[in-house]
Amino acid sequence: MERTFEAWVTPIMIGGLILFMCFIIWDLARKSNAGKFGTLILFIALGAGMLGFVIKTVITKMMESGGL
Fold this sequence. Notes:
2 helices
């Protein structure tokens, strides 16, 4: 039961955290009057860590299933 709960809740909570961090970046850009280009740079620079985490997760799943 605990493993099933963990298997469902962990991806949901991590996804929620990533969405919240995207909101924080957007709010930071809005409050600092960054403009379109500044907002893009903020999302690229600060979102790179989140993208790296997602890519690592996908590659790990592929390696565990024998797809890579």
